[in-house]
Amino acid sequence: LLQVQAQEKKIFNETDAQKEQRLAWWTNDRFGMFIHWGLYSMPSRHEWVKSNEHITDSAYQKYFDLYNPDLYNPREWARMAKAAGMKYAVITTKHHEGFCLFDSKYTDYKSTNTPVKKDLIKEWVEAFRAEGLKIGFYYSLIDWHHPDYTIDEVHPQRPNNPKDYDSLNRGRDMAKYRTYLQNQVRELMTNYGKIDILWTDFSFPGEHGKDHNDWNSLELIKMIRKLQPGILINNRLDLGEYADGGDFETPEQYKVSEWPTRNGKRVPWETCQTFSGSWGYYRDETSWKDNKQLLVLLIESVSKGGNLLLNVGPTSRGLFDTRAQDRLKGMGDWMQVNSRSIYGCTEAPAEFKRPDNSLLTYNPATKRLYVHLLDYPLQRFELPGMKGKIKYAQLLSDGSEIKMHNTDKGDVALDLPVRKPDVEIPVIELILQ
Ligand code: JFZ
């Protein structure tokens, strides 16, 4: 028992400073690419299509039999991620449908057995690493294909009448699934070199749900930490307060109102967001966000101390569809001149008041404050309470000086150019005293 406790201590009882150190690259980099890819890119109507439409295994089989992303070129994906200003990427190695994009010893339901015949993850890891991006694996705890995985409330074969769960699940054995899960995660943590992030998904406690007991989350996290000591693990293993619940929080698809806390302390967090609503490629979806909205998501996350993991759902041919490419290009055009307000930045200290229609970020290392102008004002722009605090002000877009005047009320007024700088959201860089 003592030995077990000592081991747990070694795995979990990091000091705050050690944890901060382990997360340092991630809190600096701020912006990553999420990739949801699987058989569901073929029906092209949501990665949950199997559950949403109650599709049986045999009816879903045609996608496996035909899966052939013949235009797959992960080096091209990595270049696009990098050009957009992203520093890390997380790909679905297996989503809820159960299909593995990697060559697992423990299943036949994998890409190597489809017409494409490749370990898609292996090529992906090599390509993204070669472009200098950090590597993350998404792994679905939920599995709608494995025969031992018990039918729960989100399973494609869930019953209309809750009384039928027991009879439906006769013969299914979650203990066997747990072993499968542990085996696959071990493969992912062993066969692909250094992995920077593991993104598990997800727990949904309840009578017909799944929680940490179903995954054996504690054993899983111990194994992962042993095999990949530096790795960052998200918070979807249902570990509660144990091990801080995970290395970072993952609020999804909505904007956080303020920096999330745990026991009164601010925690590292990352919001994941889609271009259009679904994560997997969805051909007919029309709810695509525009470039400005996506930039606001990034800036707003950093302004509250968080990261953005922005999702692309590649097509079944293996391409980023043109709508996704346009948006990545939009992010890249902005990041090319403005990334100084993103990398290494965080929430601004409370002494700096946020002017109307703006978002603030702050770089503690360089002591520079960034004002993002969401609605470009006409010429005069006031910074409340900033008198005596600013050494120099310039536009990030072209490095041109912005003249400053102190006002009688203790504010600083800036003389902005009448013509809006040629970027979606102009940024003022304030070099503080
Ligand atoms: C999950 C998946 O079901 C989805 O397909 C996608 O992979 C996404 C990134 O993660 O969806 C979730 C998981 C957790 C919450 C909401 C949707 N949650 O905690 O609110």
Automatic annotation (TrEMBL):
It is an enzyme of class 3 (hydrolase). It holds the Pfam family Alpha_L_fucos. Keywords: Glycosidase, Hydrolase, Signal. InterPro entries: FUC_metazoa-typ (IPR016286), GH (IPR017853), Glyco_hydro_29 (IPR000933), Glyco_hydro_29_N (IPR057739). GO terms for cellular component: lysosome. The record marks 272 as: May be important for catalysis. The keyword Signal applies. One of its GO terms (molecular function) is alpha-L-fucosidase activity. Residues 3-339 form the Glycoside hydrolase family 29 N-terminal domain. It comes from the Bacteria. Its EC number is 3.2.1.51. One of its GO terms (biological process) is fucose metabolic process. Alpha-L-fucosidase is responsible for hydrolyzing the alpha-1,6-linked fucose joined to the reducing-end N-acetylglucosamine of the carbohydrate moieties of glycoproteins. Belongs to the glycosyl hydrolase 29 family. This is alpha-L-fucosidase. The lineage of its organism: Bacteria, Pseudomonadati, Bacteroidota, Chitinophagia, Chitinophagales.
